Amino acid sequence: MQVNNEFKPKIIAFCCNWCSYAGADLAGTNRLNYPADVKIIRVPCSCRINPMFILRAFQRGADGVILCGCHPGDCHYTSGNYFARRRMTLLFSMLDYLGIEKERTRVEWVSAAEGAKFAATMNEFVETVTKLGENKRLEDLRCKEN
Amino acid sequence: MQRELIERAKQLLADGTVSRVMGWKAGEFGYDMTPAVFASSEELEKDFRYDDFCEANLSKYMIKESRKEGKILVFLKPCDTYSFNELLKEHRILRENVYVIGVPCTGKVNANAIRSRGIHGITGMSCDGETVTVSTLYGEETVPKNEAMAERCQNCKSKKHVIYDELFGEEGEVTGAPRFRMVEKLESMTPDQRFSFWRKELSRCIRCNACRNVCPACSCEKCVFDNDASGVANKAAADSFEENMFHIIRAFHVAGRCTDCGECSRVCPQNIPLHLLNRKFIKDINELYGEYQAGEDLETKCPLTDYTKDDAEPSIIYQRGGNR
Q1: Residue B238: pLDDT above 90?
Q2: Mean pLDDT in residue range B294-301
Q3: Is A2 part of a structural domain of the chain?
């Protein structure tokens, strides 16, 4: 039997309920391809994301985390994504400061009409993370399968 | 100075303005000043100290003290007043129960700064304002005071008291010392170098939580790290992830509220330069969202509870400085 040793990254995509989740849905109904390595977690708003969620995802074995929300100005709750934007900028900058590869984290604004953008973003992100390889710098050995 | 402060405190106790006094007294060693509450003029006479070794920031104690019966007198150094102001802004201190006396500060002597010069076996220290005389097991050494201070005092951000009821000495000025040099140095390293720098520092963490307990910005009644299910609540970090996670999250929780008082680094028993994490956030906030000094006033909104429509996109960090 042939064993496939090719590295498949685990990607967590936090998608806001109102825009990006619908965008992902649209990508699906349009039969657009994006890698199955992307696991979508639906959140009410991009500002629901606590920095701990992102670190927890890395702890549990994610190799990349992407946060998708409504375009600035289009937030269902008026201003949620503006706050998320500031928080994520600071958090990602801090991760970079600690020497964790900055390409593993990303924020992308995807509206409900942008199914194609969603698929393209995910393809691109998965490719980037695949090149980086396994997440070693922010891994929790206790959560690894032996 | 110490004499004047004791006299004034006794006066305020005697005329009933305050019922307790918060200041410093000698701890285990003569150079190790610890916070203390005094309830009578006898106690003040006996134990109260104010000298070049009084490093502790007393503002956080006011959260609990201001809720007790009677008014309390507290002595605050210039940088402590920023923390006090920030706590007031967050409605954590009952202002009417605190009487603030601003005390001048010319920088405080730090025992670790002296040890880092290779002076060990310290048995006692004294300071005349210019030089520190250190008696050790191996004889006496002298160190100029400005070299015997912690980094936060060498690059003192402000000599100005931003809040007080009464002030000893003259009103100082905001000095704006260059405090981001080390952060800049780290930023200019490659990610690999940065990673090994922080791994070396953070792996010493013993999760004693002293940084959290002393931090005036960490004043939540319930702390996320006390949750056993958080995955980072072990008393001894079981995994490198815990050390990273704890310090990233702690720094993030105080981002925009940290006044850069440097208490976290002072109390760290492992001498981890924790203030460098907070300063990174301060530097980023200053660069991306405009200059902001937490605790400077009571009105300005904290940068993380505010936004503008044309803030920088998170992708800015991919373009910005540093080696890849």
Answers
A1: no
A2: 92
A3: no
**Per-block average pLDDT, block size 10, for chain A (146 residues)?**
80 96 96 94 95 91 94 94 95 93 93 96 95 89 74
Confidence of residue B323 (pLDDT cuts 50, 70, 90): very low
Q: Cα–chain-centroid distance for residue B155? A: 13
User: Is A94 in contact with B304 (Cβ distance < 8 A)?
Assistant: no
- Domain of residue A57: give its range: 11-143
pLDDT mean over B231-254: 84
Q: Say what the ipTM of the complex is.
A: 0.91
Q: Do B309 and A72 touch (CB under 8 A)?
A: yes
- The strand pairing partners of A39, in sequence order, are A12
Looking only at the bridges linking them, the beta strands covering B122-127 and B131-136 are antiparallel
Nearest residue of B to residue A83, measured between CA atoms = B307
DSSP structure string for B192-216: HHHHHHHHHHHTT-----HHHHH-T
Amino acid at B33: M
Q: Residue A77: how many CB atoms within 10 A of its CB?
A: 15
pTM of the model: 0.92
To the nearest whole Å, the CA of A74 is away from the closest chain B CA by 11
DSSP string of A10-60? Answer: -EEEEEETTTHHHHHHHHHHTT----TTEEEEEESSGGG--HHHHHHHHHT
Q: Could you identify the residue written with the tokens 């916070």? A: B35
Half-sphere exposure of B244 (CA within 13 A, CB side): 28
pLDDT (0 to 100) of residue B49: 93
Q: At B140, phi and psi to the nearest 5?
A: -100, 145
- Span of A117-121, B101-105, B167-171 with lowest mean pLDDT: B167-171
Residue A121 lies in a domain: yes
Q: How far is B308 from B284, CA to CA, in rounded Å?
A: 16
| Count of structural domains, chain A | 1
For residues A11 and B263, what is the distance between their CA atoms, to the nearest angstrom? 38
Task: Find where tokens 């009487």 sit.
Answer: B99
Q: Which DSSP string do the residues of B240-251 spell out, in sequence order?
A: HHHHHHHHHHHH
Q: Would the pLDDT of B321 be above 60?
A: no
List residues of A whose CB lies inside 8 A of any B CB.
51-52, 55-56, 58-59, 72-73, 79, 82-83, 85-103, 106-107, 137-142
Is B85:B295 a contact under the CB 8 Å cutoff? yes
